[in-house]
Design a protein that fits this description.
Layout lengths: L6 H9 L3 H8 L9 E2 L7 E6 L8 H14 L2 E6 L8 H13 L18 E8 L2 H6 L1 H6 L5 E4 L7 H12 L3 E4 L7 H8 L1 H18 L6 E3 L7 H7 L5 E5 L6
Length: 250
């Protein structure tokens, strides 16, 4: 049954009961063409689907998405935020175990575009939940999984948090960039202009992270909010710009 395609679906939508969650379930993760990429043909803007609990992605959907990536020789792009808070550790472990069972490697963003990663998964975590990312280390190590952490609010972090990020990098994970203060880029540019966005939300923390030894090459848009103007402005700074499936270039 398609979402909204029955009398019951219409009634539920009318009274405002869980229709968004129902539609999210019908919008099957494996069927989202925009989150699969192949080898060196990747464009600069890459798009991922969230596995945070609020989106209701099922274990079966994850299994079928991995199978599709392998069947077509592509990389499946997924993201979440705070392990154990926005996404259950059970969901993460199921993904890692399913990938291991299918011999589908989890690859960091810096490995993309180099070829040789057909049937892989690019899993990323956004924002600044450094303690919970660190707590996830044994699970990632158990499955030999390498992921990408897109970091925001780096300038406000403690020295201990910076040290934890370096430990994650030493484990083979990517530490990448997610702006100074997690502003909606489209809204910010509309109000202040593109030059102000670059000066205030891109270069300060980017320069600081690079000075601290992080080789930043990748960027994730907060909220997935992007535009062609922003893509062009950020292209000189990064190899890839990660959006979300609903904001993909069409």
């Amino acid at each position: 049954m398609r979402c909204g395609g029955s009398v019951l679906g219409a009634v539920l939508a009318w009274i405002g009961l869980a229709s968004v969650a129902a539609c999210a379930t019908e919008s099957s993760l494996p069927d989202d063409e925009n989150i699969y990429y192949a080898g060196v043909t990747e464009p600069i803007v890459l798009c991922a689907a969230s596995i945070d609990d609020k989106y209701g992605v099922t274990d079966d959907e994850l299994d079928r998405a991995i199978a599709r990536a392998q069947r077509h020789g592509r990389t499946l792009h997924l993201y979440a935020h705070d392990p154990g808070v926005t996404v259950s550790l059970a969901t993460i472990e199921h993904l890692l175990a399913a990938a291991a069972a299918r011999d589908a490697p989890l690859v960091p963003y810096t490995a993309l575009g180099s070829g040789g990663h057909a049937g892989s998964i690019a899993l990323s975590f956004d924002d600044n939940a450094v303690a919970d990312w660190t707590a996830m280390r044994p699970l990632l190590t158990q499955y030999a999984a390498h992921v990408t952490f897109f970091v925001t609010r780096y300038l406000a972090m403690t020295d201990d948090e910076h040290a934890q990020l370096h430990q994650l990098a030493a484990d083979g994970h990517d530490i990448e960039y997610h702006t100074v203060s997690h502003q909606n880029a489209v809204d910010y540019v509309a109000a202040n202009g593109i030059d102000a966005y670059l000066a205030n939300e891109i270069t300060p923390a980017l320069d600081a992270m690079r000075a601290d030894g992080f080789e930043i090459t990748e960027f994730a848009y907060p909220f997935g909010a992007r535009s062609p103007e922003l893509d062009d402005a950020l292209a000189p700074y990064f190899h890839h710009l990660r959006a979300i499936h609903s904001t993909c270039p069409r």
